[in-house]
Design a protein that fits this description.
With 75 residues, this protein is mostly helical. The chain has one domain. Helices cover 89% and strands 0% of the residues. It has three helices and no strands. Helix 1 runs antiparallel to helix 2 and helix 2 runs antiparallel to helix 3. The relative contact order is 0.12. Keywords: Membrane, Transmembrane, Transmembrane helix.
C-alpha cells in the first residue's frame, strides 16, 4: 500500500509539471504532502506523517516567500 501512495505522489508531481510548468512542482508537492498526511494519520505511520508535514511546511514557506518577493519587486 505504501508503494501505491508513493507512486500516486510521484504522478501528482509529474502531472502538475505537465499542466502548470514550474509552478506545478509547488502544487504537486502541496497535494502530495496532504495525501501523505492523510495516509500517515490513517495508517498511524509516524515516519510517513513526519516527512509529509515537513514537505508541506517547506512548500508553504516557499509559497509565502515567493509572494513576498513578488510584492517587493518593482514589476
Amino acid at each position: 500500500m505504501k508503494n501505491n501512495i508513493l507512486i500516486t505522489m510521484g504522478i501528482l508531481v509529474l502531472l502538475g509539471i505537465a499542466v502548470q510548468g514550474l509552478f506545478g512542482i509547488v502544487a504537486g508537492v502541496f497535494l502530495s504532502a496532504i495525501l501523505g498526511i492523510i495516509y500517515g494519520a490513517v495508517k498511524k505511520n509516524k515516519q510517513f506523517l513526519r516527512w509529509s508535514v515537513i514537505a508541506l511546511t517547506i512548500d508553504i514557506i516557499c509559497i509565502i516567500l515567493f509572494y513576498f518577493c513578488l510584492i517587493q519587486s518593482d514589476m
